[in-house]
Specification:
By secondary structure, the chain is an alpha/beta fold. The chain has 26 helices and 15 strands.
């Protein structure tokens, strides 16, 4: 919202939410049922609108792929959930323009129609109407909107986005878009009145307009130096860095797409040329190594669309496989095979906590691949590549997320430390903090627990920790050998409290179950009424028992001064991360100079918890 919203700030359909897309239905229905007019207006409107969405998606995707943008970024700052939400209705202007154009098309006596598909001369006329009156009118309208009265009521809404994204250029209040629509109609109406209008001019102008608008708001410089060095070019077309200065300096560089009017009226910011040079050479926001990296992986196949460079709004909310993703499943499957053949670890997102630079990287593997031994060498090779790349670039800590640290896969990261004993980077599975989070949810007066997944890293550490504090622990495992190994680790006084079980029925009278492996509806029915299921199993349990309590997976809300979160970490709430991710961050904040791999040192659970609390983390 603007700082002091004025008249007609909201679009009429803004409160409809996603139901606003029903406003496109009449056009699709007319086109699909064969009831279109002689100009096929509804069909063209649908196609133009689809192309505009495609252009927006392409630019959003490209601008969020760090491998593409990291060398020539303009602003080093990131964006926030607040900006994502404020810009969620970025496409309202398209609905407005669809209905305005349609109203004019069908207007009695002065409506337009019977256009040829293509008219070359008309396209040139349209271009001249844009270069002349449209650019000129926009320049002065834009300057007027920067007057403090109008700025506070309207244009400040747009400038709330200090670091723009490609769709930011379309984020304005309703009244402002009405003014813009009138200005942007000049080239189309001009070509119509002087002769030469065609159907193609709607495609070229509207899609081309969105293309140019996205260029100015993409926050990385890509206009080639040879192109911008052509005499006069800097007056005819702006660059991403030129318009970025309008967002950072506000009262300069007002042009639409052509800086000529800024040059004519003296509103070019003095650093425009130097910022372009710094950006195109990678000096505006130089690439630097993060302090800590968290290495995740894909989960559900359709989690592909939860990546930040896929669906912008979808990735900003906790992941859940929506029904409308189902038709895209084949695309995800093909992508998985392509990533298996050619994929590399990539940067998912970047954050900052005080002076600590954090990044999340992703291995090109989905959860299903971890369940096939034939894929383990591939997965481990990608994890190893990430560790070595991070080590060479100066990263201090790398945390292994979820299945990337599976015991059978690589011994909780120990494989990599053993293979590379001279690593400067510290490899961290983060499960010490995960264990602490599970334990903190267990009431202090509990005297007995039942543990499944008991011989896993977490199950072992939790069992030893509780037994040493006087809690009876029934460990369910089919492996007597592994149970005995854990029992032998316990102090003598704690061993009498650790009991071996091979069936779930052993927990039938225990009201605190600690779940570390899949537990079906039948399995859950064995627990007595009022049982609390404390979970560290991934994915979390399906909640079949209404008479029982299910704790959430161990997770932490990052400290309030953590910045630049724009996506959710899978199913986590905004600003929250899995406990193992938080564990890697704590490791870096504390400057601990050891690897946290292999078995969990349960004697460090309390120390790790206290460190997390000291740094402002909050358990969810």
């Amino acid at each position: 919202m603007a700082t002091n919203p004025g008249l007609w700030t909201k679009f009429p359909w803004e409160d409809l939410g996603n139901f606003k897309y029903l406003l496109y239905v009449p056009f699709a229905a007319v086109a699909l049922t064969g009831n279109d007019d002689s100009d096929n207006w509804a069909a063209h409107i649908c196609m133009i609108t689809l192309l505009r969405y495609i252009v927006a998606q392409i630019f959003v995707s490209i601008s969020r792929v760090h491998r593409i943008t990291e060398r020539t970024r303009i602003q080093d700052k990131g964006i926030s959930f607040e900006q994502i939400d404020r810009e969620d209705n970025w496409d309202d202007f398209m609905i407005l323009q669809v209905y305005v154009m349609t109203a004019v098309h069908y207007m009695p006596h002065i409506g337009f129609g019977d256009f040829p598909l293509y008219n070359k001369d008309g396209l040139w006329k349209m271009l001249w109407f844009h270069i002349g009156p449209a650019e000129f009118a926009y320049y002065w309208l834009h300057r007027i909107l920067h007057h403090k009265f109008l700025y506070a009521r309207y244009h400040s809404h747009h400038h709330a986005s200090f670091v723009p994204e490609p769709i930011t250029g379309s984020v304005h209040p309703f009244m402002e878009h009405i003014m813009y629509t009138a200005v942007f109609a000049i080239p189309l109406l001009g070509a119509f009145f002087v002769g030469g209008a065609s159907v193609s001019m709607f495609y070229v102008y509207l899609v081309g307009f969105d293309f140019m608008n996205a260029i100015g708001h993409c926050n990385f410089e890509f206009m080639p130096r040879w192109f911008m060095s052509i005499p006069g070019m800097k007056y005819l077309i702006y660059t991403p860095s030129f318009h970025s200065l309008h967002h950072s300096r506000v009262h300069a560089n007002f042009c639409l797409f052509m800086p000529i009017y800024d040059h004519m009226f003296g509103t070019v910011h003095k650093t425009s040329d130097s910022l372009y040079e710094r950006a195109i050479t990678g000096q505006a926001a130089p690439k630097t190594a993060p302090d800590v990296v968290f290495l995740g992986h894909g989960t559900n196949l359709v989690s592909l669309f939860h990546l930040p460079f896929m669906f912008r709004s979808f990735s900003s909310r906790p992941f859940e496989p929506k029904w409308w993703l189902a038709p895209l499943w084949p695309f995800c499957l093909v992508t998985m095979f392509i990533m298996r053949a050619f994929g590399k670890v990539f940067v998912h997102d970047k954050h900052r906590l005080r002076n600590l630079k954090m990044e999340t990287w992703v291995t090109p593997a989905w959860a299903i691949q971890f369940f096939f031994k034939s894929q383990w060498n591939f997965i481990n090779s990608k994890i190893e590549e990430a560790i070595l790349e991070a080590n060479d670039s100066g990263v201090k800590v790398i945390g292994l997320g979820a299945l990337n640290k599976n015991e059978a896969l690589n011994g909780g990261g120990k494989l990599f430390v053993d293979n590379h004993p001279n690593l400067r980077i510290r490899v961290v599975h983060g499960n010490t903090l995960t264990a602490a989070a599970v334990l903190k949810k267990i009431p202090s007066n509990v005297t007995e627990v039942f543990v499944t997944g008991a011989t896993s890293k977490l199950g072992r550490a939790i069992s030893l920790y509780l037994a040493e504090r006087g809690v009876k622990v029934t460990m369910m495992t089919q492996s007597a050998e592994r149970f005995q190994q854990i029992l032998d680790e316990a102090p003598l006084e704690a061993r009498k409290l650790i009991v071996h079980a091979t069936k779930l029925e052993a927990g039938a009278h225990c009201k605190d179950w600690i779940i570390g492996k899949f537990c079906s509806q039948k399995d859950q029915s064995i627990a007595p009424p009022g049982t609390t299921f404390h979970q560290f199993v991934v994915p979390p349990l399906q909640e079949f028992r209404s008479d029982c309590v299910y704790t959430d997976l161990p997770a932490f809300a990052m400290p309030d001064d953590t910045k630049y979160f724009k996506t959710c970490e899978m199913t986590m709430e905004r600003g929250c991360v899995h406990a193992c991710h938080a564990g890697a961050v704590v490791h870096a904040l504390e400057g601990w100079d050891f690897h946290e791999v292999g078995a969990i040192d349960h004697t460090r659970i309390d120390l790790t918890w206290e460190a997390a609390m000291k740094h402002g983390m909050t358990m969810k």
